[in-house]
Amino acid sequence: MRRLLTGEVLLLGGFLVAAAVTVLLVLPGPPAATSTAAPTTSDQDLLIKVRQAGLWEIPTGQQAQQRALSRRVKDVGRHLVEDHLKLDKEVIAVASRLGVVLPSQPSADQQRWMAQLSTKSGPAYDRDFANLLRAAHGKVFSVIALVRAGTRNDEIRRFAQKSNAFVLKHMTLLESTGLVDYDALPEPPTPSPAPAALAADSRRDNQ
User: Is 153 helix (H, G, I), strand (E, B) or coil?
Assistant: First the structure.
């Protein structure tokens, strides 16, 4: 009987330990730190640039569906319109919550690009559409990425992440036309010297 009781106690003890470990594994951890910091000028600039992107890409995408010669360019234009209509609603909502005033018209450069495209037709239209929009997406892509990496505001961080996914998708779509002139795109910035290289330069300077 004593051996049986001892075995039951050990079994019960093992069960309680296993149950305790299970509870610890399934219980949620401490909540992630959140930030409701006021939007910085960089945060606001991100919202403004995304808004302006929609203000010229929506009508330009609609135009491409009518004027482009290539079926692929027409399809890309349709995707741009659909995505920017969604993103435009979101940027307006985020800006409203954060008290950021958004523009109601494209930038001067964007208006110039729209005017340029309006004078084109056929293959020239397709080529300029792909290259103007690909260059513009490359510029805003880097802006969004920098804000996503350093913003202190949770809502801006979430919006930047979603925006970057759209921009990356659009760059890929534009490149799929086969019309992008990569040599005309700005080169990536020169990387900063690695710490080892800096140390070597310092040693040479002190010799």
Answer: strand
